[in-house]
Amino acid sequence: MNFASMVLRLSRAALLPAGLLLACAATQARAQTPVPEDARTLEFGKDIFKTKARCQFCHKWDGTGDQGYGGNALSLRKTELTREQLTEVVKCGRLATEMPYHDKFAYTDKRCFGVTREQAGAEAPPDANQFLQASEINAVVAYVFARIVGKGAPNYDECVDFWGKDTQQCEPFRK
Ligand code: HEC
By CB neighbour count within 10 A (0-12 exposed, 13-18 middle, 19+ buried), where does 173 fall? Predict the structure, then answer.
């Protein structure tokens, strides 16, 4: 074997694993970085959670839930609802609780729990602060699942992602 072919072999041997690693890293990066469309949906969903529907008023910014204004708003971090069930809660609210409904037509026909407003009577949940379009409901549900459901204790980075850096809000989360 001459020197040149040895070098060639050696470098191939070295390149192969490096190439594999690169390929793996690329696949991982692809799996972790949301495609731009998703990132936009999440930003849109966050804005609804924060401002338009004000979910945070009752559930807190981090979804850990709260007792007080709006009754006992459950923890969305610990919820065991499926995506479908959670979507229903957002659309229909919850009967006999302070969880508001966000689908304007929720109780005009029987799309929610098979009852009209009249039939729900005193059990009808309150109207939302602002009603949401189907696309807005999808976005806020996507946001809740991506950033809140199943996450452990909230941390500083999550807080800054929600409130930005120009507030004292996140100081308690600084380690
Ligand atoms: C006015 C206060 C208030 C607002 C605003 C509010 N919620 Fe709620 N939410 C509640 C209360 C109270 C409950 C608990 C109902 C119960 O006792 O079952 C609840 C329950 C829920 C549940 C059920 C959790 C479970 O595990 O059963 C989900 C999901 C939920 N809210 C999501 C949202 C989202 C998303 C928004 C914004 C689009 C929102 N909520 C806005 C008060 C509120």
Answer: middle
